[in-house]
């Protein structure tokens, strides 16, 4: 068996299946077009609608190398040879074409003839009831003793999510020969040993659909879905047991050793950290490249979790400052030939990673010290209350706390922590109002299809297919809020950032006011609204979209495309859409960029868009092959992997994007484009809001009215307004400074110091004022902290609100953190805020809780919490 690089393995697999009549397709994004999944977790995910029978395939045979992310076993990463968060899955797929015999024969041909793996090293498994697969394996030459029957738990795949396609599977194992325990008197097999036989290929015979209740239904067409782990095959072909010793990881580990000045394979504990970093930096690099950005929910939370785990292991290796961003380059260098988008986004990825590291590294170091202090004072026990306080007050992630507890044999009350967390969520829901989109819509598994004609018309003659009242489908309805499904509709269902259409559906004896339109499952469009009168299944109706709102939405949607193109021309091609909202009144566009836009940049963007508008360029819409569209330069804002044909929206040579939304026919219809606001959404993401058409006119009329009113107040000509306001602002600042100084002089610092307390040689004081302004508090807290050489809390009740400041001398920041103290105090006062280790300010609403807030401050200083 010859040595093969990962590049050679990847290419030989794809080429082999091309020779068997398969269409080679590029990897889909890690962000799936699937509401059930956060990430693409398997090679078959992009093809789920085909397996479901919802979409007809363009090609009946496909082969891919799919990038995947899974974090369900993240605790094992770095500790075992083959657990990863990011991995590549080689796959060949049949959509109603060939089935078990060809799938098995070709898999065996590839591993024995192309990879030249010795047959004596190979074993296979089959589902215990799958006699057909057993016989096929025997017919290709596998001895019966090496065909192992396994249970449904081991050899029945899927679905990838709560529902979906699934079926029995068959696996190929490679015998590494490593010494492991074997039941006495038995030959070692994949069924009776652990760690010796490595699964390198899983052939799934997809012939069932599992519904919400777990019941299996035969699929209209039998399919093949296979997955061969590139990392595992590379380990076997390169003669190593650990995936981390393959060429996929070696350059990354080399870079980690260089950046962190550590040596691999000298210290087992350090080796775990090095492997964790190597794995996680791959996942982080690919996730950010595909458009995931750090946040506190959804995909962004998973990214943040992975990134922070890697950062924590860097700290264990001695890192004192951001380092992970320096390792990104090694991932890009290794993988850019297969995934060129990595090279295009390299600097952006490095910026995102570095900024996230800067936000967290000091907090991580401080939090880790607090964990060990708690454990040392409690005999190695971390209570639920302590865990939740670390999480809620100091922002210390529970995942990292679990890691530390496991590594140091601390007893962590995880169940109690989850109870505290759920109580907090419940409080939050009550405070904000619970908003939840139910995963189960009731339309799953129902044979329905709606034809959308809204690209060409705003009216249609339609027939009622379904009526849903509450949770039940009914034959007819009268005078109620309900949902209606039509066979044909001009109503656009909310998708891709564009809001749903509104309008009416008029029947024989009723009028249904459409308030919202959505697509719960592929191919079904649901109209939600108010029925006045009656409506029945099978009834002929007239569906009519609100023309004014649709046209305003179309103007904003096309303008969004022009804005995206203008941003890339003015700021650079690193700009990528990170979210959007297109509605009749405005457009909102989130994009990747790491600094605020200057006035000059905003003006340049507005000028570019308006030049295109004034040029009255036709908006061309074509349906064409995906590969062709991308080659022409179309920007893919979503992944169209369910067939190779996509909808391309093109505006001359200025903009070309893949988009399923509705658009104007000519840019001249957009009217004036005006940016209303620009600001930050999160680290590395900016947001622009803008208006078009009549909304621009309304904006200018509003501004004109305001200027006229201000001019009347100051009684000066318009050209003198700015100068007049500047003079008034300067005068106000001067007077405020005088008042602050008088107030400060009126306060006796000596009296406050006289009430100071002491703990462990550290003096501290808290004082409450009435009506003292923030600037005065800041001056006082500086003076008091300097003189006491200890922590100070000053609170002011001001016009029904609470303002407070915290100061900690620099020499005490190893024990106290002003920002964390402020957060704890603010929580008591029903407010929020924070700051640096030495100074913080915050606010609150609960005046009656001020004594409790002072008590909290004092307990923190005395280390009682």
From TrEMBL:
CDD domains linked to this entry: AlaRS_core
SUPFAM superfamilies linked: Class II aaRS and biotin synthetases, Putative anticodon-binding domain of alanyl-tRNA synthetase (AlaRS), ThrRS/AlaRS common domain, Translation proteins
Main location, first listed in the record: cytoplasm
Catalytic activity: tRNA(Ala) + L-alanine + ATP = L-alanyl-tRNA(Ala) + AMP + diphosphate
Coiled-coil boundaries: 718-752
PROSITE patterns to which the protein is assigned, alphabetical: AA_TRNA_LIGASE_II_ALA
InterPro entries linked: aa-tRNA-synth_II/BPL/LPL, Ala-tRNA-lgiase_IIc, Ala-tRNA-ligase_IIc_anticod-bd, Ala-tRNA-synth_IIc_core, Ala-tRNA-synth_IIc_N, Ala-tRNA_ligase, Ala_tRNA_ligase_euk/bac, DHHA1_dom
The protein's name in its UniProt record: Alanine--tRNA ligase
Record flagged with keyword Ligase: yes
Chain residues that bind Zn(2+): 557, 561, 659, 663
Family: Belongs to the class-II aminoacyl-tRNA synthetase family.
Subcellular compartments: Cytoplasm
Required co-factors: Zn(2+)
Annotated Gene Ontology cellular component terms: cytosol
EC number annotated for this UniProt entry: 6.1.1.7
Free-text remark on how the cofactor is bound: Binds 1 zinc ion per subunit.
């Amino acid at each position: 068996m010859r040595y093969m690089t990962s590049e050679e393995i990847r290419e030989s697999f794809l080429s082999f299946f091309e020779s068997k009549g398969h269409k080679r397709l590029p990897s889909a994004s890690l962000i799936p077009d699937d509401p059930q999944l956060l990430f693409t977790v398997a090679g078959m995910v992009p093809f789920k609608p085909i397996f479901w029978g919802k979409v007809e395939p363009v090609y009946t045979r496909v082969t891919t190398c799919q990038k995947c992310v899974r974090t369900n076993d993240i605790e094992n990463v770095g500790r075992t040879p083959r657990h990863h968060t990011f991995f590549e899955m080689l796959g060949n797929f049949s959509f109603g074409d060939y089935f078990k015999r060809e799938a098995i024969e070709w898999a065996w041909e590839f591993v024995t003839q192309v990879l030249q793996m010795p047959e004596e090293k190979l074993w296979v498994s089959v589902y215990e009831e799958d006699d057909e697969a057993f016989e096929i394996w025997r017919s290709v030459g596998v001895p019966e003793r090496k065909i192992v029957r396994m249970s449904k738990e081991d050899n029945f795949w899927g679905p990838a999510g709560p529902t979906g396609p699934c079926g029995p599977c068959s696996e190929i194992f490679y015998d590494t020969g490593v010494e492991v325990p074997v039941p006495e008197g038995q030959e070692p097999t994949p069924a009776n040993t652990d760690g010796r036989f490595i699964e390198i290929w899983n052939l799934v015979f997809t012939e069932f659909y599992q519904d919400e209740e777990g019941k299996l239904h035969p699929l209209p067409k039998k399919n093949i879905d296979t997955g061969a782990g590139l990392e595992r095959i590379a380990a076997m072909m390169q003669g190593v047991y650990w995936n981390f010793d393959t060429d996929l990881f070696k350059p990354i580990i080399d870079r980690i050793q260089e950046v962190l000045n550590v040596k691999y394979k000298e210290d087992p504990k350090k080796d775990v950290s090095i492997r964790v970093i190597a794995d996680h930096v791959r996942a982080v690099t690919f996730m950010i490249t595909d458009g995931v950005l750090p946040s506190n929910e959804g995909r962004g939370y998973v990214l943040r979790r992975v990134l922070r785990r890697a950062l924590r292991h860097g700290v264990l290796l001695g890192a004192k400052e951001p380092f992970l961003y320096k390792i990104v380059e090694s991932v890009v260098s290794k993988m850019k030939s297969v995934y060129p988008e990595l090279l295009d986004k390299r600097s952006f990825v490095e910026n995102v990673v570095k900024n996230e590291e800067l936000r967290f590294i000091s907090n991580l170091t401080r939090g880790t010290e607090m964990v060990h202090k708690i454990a040392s004072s409690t005999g190695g026990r971390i209570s639920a209350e302590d865990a939740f306080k670390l999480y809620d007050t100091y922002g210390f992630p529970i995942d990292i706390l679990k890691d530390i507890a496991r590594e140091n044999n601390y007893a962590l009350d995880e169940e109690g922590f989850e109870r505290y967390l759920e109580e907090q969520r419940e409080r939050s829901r009550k405070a904000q109002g619970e908003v939840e989109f139910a995963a189960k819509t009731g339309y799953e598994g129902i044979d329905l299809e709606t034809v959308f004609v809204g690209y060409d018309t705003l009216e249609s003659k339609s027939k009622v297919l379904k009526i849903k009242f509450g949770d039940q489908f009914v034959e007819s309805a009268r005078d109620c809020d309900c949902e209606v499904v039509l066979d044909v509709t001009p109503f656009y269902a909310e998708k891709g950032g564009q809001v749903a259409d509104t309008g009416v559906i008029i029947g024989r004896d009723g009028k249904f006011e459409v308030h919202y339109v959505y697509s719960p499952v592929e191919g079904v469009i649901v109209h939600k609204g108010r029925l006045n009168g009656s409506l029945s299944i099978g009834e002929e109706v007239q569906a009519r979209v609100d023309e004014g709102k649709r046209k305003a939405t179309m103007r904003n949607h096309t303008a969004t495309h022009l804005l995206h193109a203008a941003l890339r021309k003015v700021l650079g091609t690193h700009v990528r859409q990170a979210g959007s909202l297109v509605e009749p009144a405005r457009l909102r566009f989130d994009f990747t960029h790491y600094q605020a836009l200057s006035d000059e940049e905003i003006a340049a963007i507005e000028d570019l868009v308006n030049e295109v508008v004034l040029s009255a360029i036709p908006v061309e819409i074509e349906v064409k092959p995906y590969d062709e569209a991308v080659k022409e330069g179309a920007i893919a804002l979503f992944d169209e992997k369910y067939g190779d044909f996509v909808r391309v929206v093109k505006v001359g040579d200025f903009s070309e994007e893949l988009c399923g939304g509705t658009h104007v026919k000519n840019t001249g219809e957009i009217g004036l484009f005006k940016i209303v606001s620009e600001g930050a959404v999160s680290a590395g993401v900016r947001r622009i809001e803008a208006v078009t058409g009549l909304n621009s006119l309304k904006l200018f009329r509003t501004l004109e009215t305001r200027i006229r009113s201000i001019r009347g107040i100051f009684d000066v000509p318009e050209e003198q307004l700015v100068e007049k306001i500047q003079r008034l602002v300067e005068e106000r600042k001067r007077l405020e400074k005088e008042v602050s100084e008088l107030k400060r002089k009126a306060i006796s610092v000596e009296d406050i110091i006289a009430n100071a307390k002491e703990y462990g040689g550290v003096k501290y004081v808290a004082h409450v004022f009435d009506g003292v302004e923030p600037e005065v508090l800041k001056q006082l807290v500086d003076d008091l902290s300097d003189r006491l050489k200890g922590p100070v809390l000053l609170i002011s009740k001001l016009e029904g609100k609470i303002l407070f400041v915290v100061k900690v001398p620099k020499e005490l920041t190893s024990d106290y953190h002003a920002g964390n103290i402020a957060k704890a105090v603010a929580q008591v006062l029903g407010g929020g805020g924070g700051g640096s280790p030495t100074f913080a300010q915050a606010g609150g609403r609960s005046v009656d809780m001020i004594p409790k807030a002072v008590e909290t401050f004092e307990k923190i200083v005395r280390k009682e919490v």
